[in-house]
Amino acid sequence: MNKPRARNLLSAFCLLASLFTVACVNSPIIGIIGEAVMLPCPCMSPINPDLLYLYWQIQETVVDAFIKGEASRSHQDKMYHNRTKLFVRENSTCSLLLSQLSVKDEKTYECLHGSPDIKKNYVSLLVAANYTSPVLQVPSEQPRGRYTCTATGGFPEATIHWLLDNQPLLWDPEPQQSVLDESTGRYNVTSTLAANISQDSTLTCIVENKRLHVNLSQTLNSPSTQDTPQNHIVIPVVVVLLLFIS
Ligand SMILES: *[C@@H]1O[C@H](CO)[C@@H](O)[C@H](O)[C@H]1NC(C)=O
Ligand SMILES: *[C@@H]1O[C@H](CO)[C@@H](O)[C@H](O)[C@H]1NC(C)=O
Ligand SMILES: *[C@@H]1O[C@H](CO)[C@@H](O)[C@H](O)[C@H]1NC(C)=O
Ligand SMILES: *[C@@H]1O[C@H](CO)[C@@H](O)[C@H](O)[C@H]1NC(C)=O
Ligand SMILES: *[C@@H]1O[C@H](CO)[C@@H](O)[C@H](O)[C@H]1NC(C)=O
Ligand SMILES: *[C@@H]1O[C@H](CO)[C@@H](O)[C@H](O)[C@H]1NC(C)=O
Questions:
Q1: Which Pfam families match (predicted)?
Q2: CA 20 to 30 Å from 95, out of 2, 199, 224, 246?
Q3: Which of 135, 181, 183, 187 for mutating ligand 4's site (highest number of atoms within 8 Å of CB)?
Q4: What is the third-level CATH fold of 135-237?
Q5: Domain spanning 2-128 has what CATH number?
Q6: How many other C-beta atoms lie within 10 A of the C-beta of residue 70?
Q7: Are 88 and 53 in contact (CB under 8 A)?
């Protein structure tokens, strides 16, 4: 409830600020790794594209530009080649579409626009990636031993929580292992819990991605009853076969 309100207040402030040509930083935009994100920058409307001067940059690095009616890519940094799109003519906006996001795109972008007075907006971008559904592994000697919960391919680093019968645990898991995959820029996270979980308890692990406000969970119901029924069926069949063979 608080966040949208804060955002509205901030937007109202930015609108007010823009009337006085004051630079303003909006709340961060969250983009998904591998996907595209629109970095918003409203230009004064109506705009005349033939007179407009538009520069998207990060300090001295040019991300994209549109100068007096033409896309201007000659100074574009090669990191942004083929990854940007402007919509000046189509939509009368100075917003920038940035695609194939990676962790390296977490920056504060400047949108400089105007004709002839130049205004400046700042947009800060954070990236995120959803984790895979967590995998809960049980110890070989149930019910006592090390239970592990693993989720892979997410960003930023997640926090793993454990619940026993939907209550926080009374004992601590081992320190969480987080591995950054250098090639993808994503994390794999693992938490290990040494415990003796009784048959009628329910163990849950939750992987929390705070930036996406996503909790992924995996539940283990009555751990030691899951395998036993199968064993009861398999063993007599084997015994019968052995009897026949002998
Ligand atoms: C951009 O696309 C063109 C043609 O599609 C390609 O030749 C060029 O290598 C690409 N550049 C980058 C940096 O990916
Ligand atoms: C451009 O405007 C149209 C109609 O208002 C809208 O459907 C479309 O999503 C807009 N595109 C961008 C890139 O803003
Ligand atoms: C994240 O992944 C889970 C399943 O793995 C899916 O249910 C959920 O909708 C995804 N959330 C987002 C924000 O992509
Ligand atoms: C992360 O997990 C994925 C999927 O299990 C695996 O392919 C990858 O090698 C792991 N990365 C690291 C750095 O451990
Ligand atoms: C696990 O806990 C139960 C009681 O909750 C106890 O009876 C049992 O001996 C424990 N098992 C081990 C291997 O510690
Ligand atoms: C995710 O789980 C944690 C721990 O149980 C909780 O504190 C947090 O509020 C949950 N977040 C969401 C978005 O459900």
A1: C2-set_2, V-set
A2: 2
A3: 181
A4: Immunoglobulin-like (2.60.40)
A5: 2.60.40.10
A6: 11
A7: no
